[in-house]
Amino acid sequence: MARVDYFHDPDAPKANSLRPAVSAFVQNDSGQVLMIRRTDNDKYAIPGGQQEVGETLAQAAIREVKEETGIEIGILAIIGLYSNPNHVIAYDDGEVRQEFSICFRAKPTGGHPKTSSESKEVQWVDPSKISDLNVHPSIQLRITHALSNLDHPFFS
Q1: pTM of the model
Q2: pLDDT at 149
Q3: What Å distances lie between residue 45 and 17, 94, 140, CA to CA?
């Protein structure tokens, strides 16, 4: 399903849904960050997606990372809670979702990088090279918070 992200855009459509989502900032022992290139908007992102009925937020993050990247993870901490009403995502089925996402810090525990129907690229990226990628501002904010090692979770 195609999507368009609106971030602080006065012409954005009005949100008509709100659903829990998760993302995971995963760093390997070399300090590289696990990134995907999304199939729905062609932007680079940290892996993540919707929580499903019957799973915890942490289970959702573990599942989404495995599905999108082939990498198994362990959750370490919460980076932030992102609920900016000025960030909405419009889908081609008419849903316009207000951002509501929990971002976790995680470490890789196994698996091998592989693409999926949601990721056309999976790669470990040096933090100094992330600015060279086409990353949506809302995802860049999570990455910035993760790299700054805040002593408390960010929340909006």
Answers
A1: 0.94
A2: 87
A3: 22, 23, 8
